[in-house]
Amino acid sequence: MSVVGAGPSPADRLAIAAVIDTGLWALDTRDLEVYLATFWPDASFSEVGPDGALGVWHGIDDIRRMSAARVGGPTGRQHRLSNTLFIPREPAAGASEGRPPGEAWTAWAYWMTSVRHPETGEVRFEMSGYLRDELERRDGEWRLLGRHLDGWPGDLRHPLRTVGTTG
Prior knowledge:
Elements: H1 10-28, H2 32-36, E1 39-48, E2 54-58, H3 59-71, E3 77-88, E4 104-116, E5 123-138, E6 141-150, H4 159-162
């Protein structure tokens, strides 16, 4: 049984990675406008907080309000991603009429953050988990349509099993 899909074309993979990387660098450099520019206006953002509560924000204005405090967080914060897995998805309703396959992907990745103390230079691990980014190309441009952040729950299934692409 093969569980490895072809994934996005090399050019699309680089473009998608650029969107994700640009957003994370914007968070780390405290640039809210650049961060928000990586999302489509109709995007959503959700996360499971350390207390287990699910937060959900719909539309760029809600994402702006939620993100404003985070962009102003500690200096010296760095986000890191690894082990990205791409799964094809259908483009959003209304935006997908007549669109060919490959215009929308889900990118799963592990994330972690660290913070460097501004006075001592000491680096400490802050948190980790996984993200699920929903990306869509519209008029030749890739942006986020959705982002979900979570810690590592004990019942997380492999994303390919979740979407039923394997036996």
